[in-house]
Amino acid sequence: VKDFPRTIEWVGGRDGFVRLIDQTQLPGALHYRDCHEVEEVWEAIRTLRVRGAPAIGIAAAMGVVLGVRTAGGDRAALDRKLEEVISYLATSRPTAVNLFWALGRMRNCFERSALVGEPLQDCFLHEALAIQEEDQQMCRAIGEAGAPLIPDGGGVLTHCNAGALATGGIGTALAVLYVAAEQGRRFLVFADETRPLLQGARLTTWELQQAGLDVTVLCDGTAAQVMKEGRVQLVLVGADRIAANGDTANKIGTYGVAVLARAHDIPFYVAAPSSTFDLRLSTGDQIPIEQRDAREVTHGFGRQTAPVGVAVYNPAFDVTPHHFITGIITERGVVRPVNEGAIRTRLATAFSQS
Amino acid sequence: VKDFPRTIEWVGGRDGFVRLIDQTQLPGALHYRDCHEVEEVWEAIRTLRVRGAPAIGIAAAMGVVLGVRTAGGDRAALDRKLEEVISYLATSRPTAVNLFWALGRMRNCFERSALVGEPLQDCFLHEALAIQEEDQQMCRAIGEAGAPLIPDGGGVLTHCNAGALATGGIGTALAVLYVAAEQGRRFLVFADETRPLLQGARLTTWELQQAGLDVTVLCDGTAAQVMKEGRVQLVLVGADRIAANGDTANKIGTYGVAVLARAHDIPFYVAAPSSTFDLRLSTGDQIPIEQRDAREVTHGFGRQTAPVGVAVYNPAFDVTPHHFITGIITERGVVRPVNEGAIRTRLATAFSQS
Fold it and tell me: Within 13 Å, how many C-alpha atoms sit on residue A55's CB side?
């Protein structure tokens, strides 16, 4: 994991740019994409070149740096420009709250100072890099908090990709696996391929392979079977937004996996940094769910695999009610059982960055 | 449905051949494939050009006609040749019992007579056509038995393809929908795309579209979400083999759908002709499950979507325990509740072919 290529980084100083792995090209090719304009960052988020809630947050923060650096004028003019850039980036994808959280931090960064010009640009860049740096530390802390849950000699099933490719560090759900492996635990990983965009087959397998972990890819419909065969002792997934009561939005298919885990008496854990919690929402019903293009389903593999004109239902996320979640692994420790009181208490504890 | 192209047919007389829709080309193209040799039938079954338990049975029976027609000699020599052809066809796919059932009928056809030469060839052809004709009538009867279960104004979810393309008639699970539609019931159909080979997206949508039914395709991981949204009032699937106690092998993913249906209090029905029951097996644990090539998962439709060398688990079927099955719709009526006594009683009742 240590030598893992960086999912997203800022190259250079104040006049630099965003460099990110184009994840739509994986696992066939490891291509980087450089974004010099905020529009390129927006496009990269929208088309899932960069994806994963924490990574989206970092990309958005860096997008703000790009979007406002040519703006001149007084504080009022800068304020308007900042608002325009933030509103624009907020339209890229609706579900992952880390995006809005990161944009909020950039807004606060402006509010806190009276800066203009290059000092303000430096302030923005500093904040974006801080978000990335903190995410990296949170990933490590999530991994350490969750590693004791990994069953030595057992099997862990994951859905989608909540790994290094989804964050500024070693991942959320996959961080737990990386740290457990570092600690000498041995286990098998089952990766749902995760239709329609196959983040499990393309990304999770790729990064686990790079890290030398033992991973087997499954069609999503096979998850129930491996559970029935007794080969899964833990389910571990990431999150795109978590409501105050613990209801969790994550990649479509997660809710079904949670129901299956419950039916097979398998613990189901969510791993996410505190930036993924949205305490303004009392339940998951209030989380906006992105609907994506039908072609992701009908033209998934390059060739058309459903008849012309067929109706498609393609929500990008679903919401797993909190009562299906055994615990939520955060950088501040594990929330268990999952309820609003436990979440608020846990998030209020200090996070001492290493 | 009436004008539906025939999934499989025998063209000509004793010297004729098998013509089948090459289902690997759907929905992009409606191509027919003619098989003049038994090896071509074996290949068509193995590669899923023809698939679906009842259709596999018909194909195998017709394959026997092709395989033995050039054989000469006395009854002992014919017996050896027949055994060779049957053993060969039996290796094409292991799970659908209809294959072995149809081969058994061809064997019985031989045993019952003392024929050789052209009269024996005619006898074989007659038996193969009878299997097809009976299947067509069974499909219709299954549809009529099941149609009253379809919730008027509701939603029905199906997995894989148990339709006209899987049988010699109008299907098993989909026959129920076709007859319900004929009777004026209105309902929405949700078709799981059914990875890895997308029989739901490619075949079920295609034939329901042809029949004018309202169908929406979903990624397999989305089934739980549409259930949670209250849009599914019935789950209806086919079967590849049903043990004496009602445990049912069907396309991988079916078991998970059954667990999800139970968790959402949605009735889960299997539709299958009596040829799909294997009363020699007391439970589903004894059903052999075909493991298929990893490339079906990693190279779905032209392009490689998982890293080189990744481990893959790709069983073609899973087994749904009988206690998850609300009822089994057969041509002799509905088995409900599902247990060995009810199955044996139902299968012993007369089937009066129309």
Answer: 32
| CA gap B11, B24 in Å, rounded | 21
Cβ neighbours of B113 (radius 10 Å) = 13
Sorted by sequence, the CB contacts under 8 Å of residue B301 that are 6+ apart come out as: A300, A301, A302, A303, A305, B198
Q: Which two tokens stand for residue B228?
A: 């949670």
Among A214, A265, A313, the residue to mutate for chain B (most B Cβ within 10 A): A313
Active site residue B285: no
Cα–Cα distance, A166 to A142 (Å, whole number): 14
User: β-pairing, A234-237 with A154-158?
Assistant: parallel
pTM, to two decimals: 0.96
Backbone angles phi, psi at B217, to 5 degrees: -95, 145
| pLDDT tens track for A35-52 | 999 999 999 999 999 999
Q: How far apart are CA B92 and CA A77, in angstroms?
A: 73
**Strand A248-251 to strand A32-35: parallel, antiparallel, or no bridges (unpaired)?**
unpaired
Q: Are strands A154-158 and A8-11 parallel, antiparallel or unpaired?
A: unpaired
B252–A226 CB contact, under 8 Å:
no
Are the C-beta atoms of B236 and B202 separated by less than 8 Å?
A: no
C-alpha closest to that of A60 among A117, A128, A4, A125? A128
DSSP-H helix ranges across B11-147: 38-46, 53-68, 75-90, 97-112, 117-146
Q: pLDDT (tens digit, 9 = 90+) per residue, B268-311?
A: 999 999 999 999 999 999 999 999 999 999 998 678 999 999 99
List CB contacts (< 8 A) between B198 and chain A.
305-306
- Chain B residues closer than 8 Å to A224 by CB: 253, 255-256, 259, 318
